[in-house]
Input
Amino acid sequence: MNMRKIQYILSGITLITLPLGIHAQQQAKDSTVNRTVVVEQEYTPDIPDASKINVLPQVEAPTANKKAVEYDVTLVPANTIPATVMQAYTGKETQAKTHPGYIRLGYGNYGNLDARAGYLFTLSGRDRLNLNFRMNGMDGKLDLPDNDGKWNSYYYRTHANMDYVHRFRKADLNVAGNFGLSNFNFLPDAAVRKQKFISGDIHFGVKSTDTELPLRFSAETNLMLYERQYDSGFLNSREYIVRTKALVTGGISDEQTVGIGFAMDNVLYKNNHFENYTSLSLNPHYRLENDDWKIRIGALVDMGFGFGKKFRAAPDVAVEYNFSDSYILYAQTKGGRLQNDFRRLEAFCPYGQVSSQPDATYEQINAAIGFKASPAIGLWLNLYGGYQNLKDDLFFQPADFESAANEYSPMLSIGQWNTSNIYAGAEIRYGYKNIFSFSATGVYRNWDAKDDSQSNTGAYSLVYKPAFEADLHIDVHPVSALLLNLGYRHISREKVEGNKVDAVNNLYAGGSYEFFKGISVYARINNLLNQDYQYYWGYPTEGINFTGGVSFKF
Output
């Protein structure tokens, strides 16, 4: 084990044990503890070099009032388009109110580090303080594409969070803080050897909780900092954002409400040549809800001042009709501005170098129709299809940046192009008590990017777009203390000029066993087929890899 891994593990253990030194307070027997304490039980750390491209619109999960039916899955929100970092399979564990604390520590064959800790302090009947820490990553040798040798890759992510809530009689006050650190290296011949992303933010929010108020409201302000330490041509490139959001709604009858949403970003840059700017978004809307219908009619009006000065508008319309007890037809047309700040660029492609300032991506339209049904207890179906149009969509491609030695080395650059796609998908889920659960999803997309230029940029923008995505997952609880799971993840890429990037094929298995109350062991094996595939251009992923460890609830 090299010195870098030892330092990460020691620092992770130190931060994990910090909450244990705090005097634990007597837990009030309040059902809100069970509502508030939700700890994500991940059987492996996040895949550090994996990206999942999501293009489906957001569809609010409808409830059928005629029959008790739960629709616990929604389509992927539009605000994650065109991509976010793909996470490893995550099982969620809701802590009992007798276990406000949680610690997990695991290790794997590629130097996979998996550490997590959390504690909920019940300060009073109206005050909650939640502390969370997590660190995950890897440090090991990966096979480069085309038998081009080995890459001594490392990638570590660290996140710490503090979240405080005070409940007033008719409103909640929320104060939160986040710190993030991503530390990793590039390919061996890259002009820039390593990268470090540092992020932090402070959140202040308030929202009404009294449903009898004539006007209900929520408002928040976020002070955000992000630093990209090593970009080609820039050192310590910084981005400061003051992000303000507000929503006011009021009822005009028992079934009808009107409201307006407001969002504003004030963005400042330092240590680069980027221009400051302000973006403003307004969302007036009308809602009608009764036993049979859910109707939302609104619009998104987006304005930019400074860099990216533009005026744009998109629809915000959704209709759901509940018929025959547990069957729902729905249709929607949405869109809006997707801010390409530094946080979004890291989620899209952490290995991409930012040499020029990107404009915001604008979802001009995302229209979908679908059908949801729950014909039997525990069974849930969803069929849908739609069309999406994106202005200034993000993509990454190989590019040569001049190194200090006046030599050109391969890197990835982030570009933008207009794209569109037609999609169709299906989902099925089934669960039997707490013994067995099964889920399967599949989405087909047909992409288009018209390109009249001689550079063939439009073709580059589609190379890593997903043509078909499929997910299968099975959970089995043979006994209450044992959980077994098996899953498969597939992503095939769009064919461009007769060529297609190798598909992602990840077959994984895992499980956990509680051998003593509050103490469990867990394990996960990824890429059981030992496939060679890439989530980013030229960047390999791990072969068969194993992570295992122990978790404690206290």
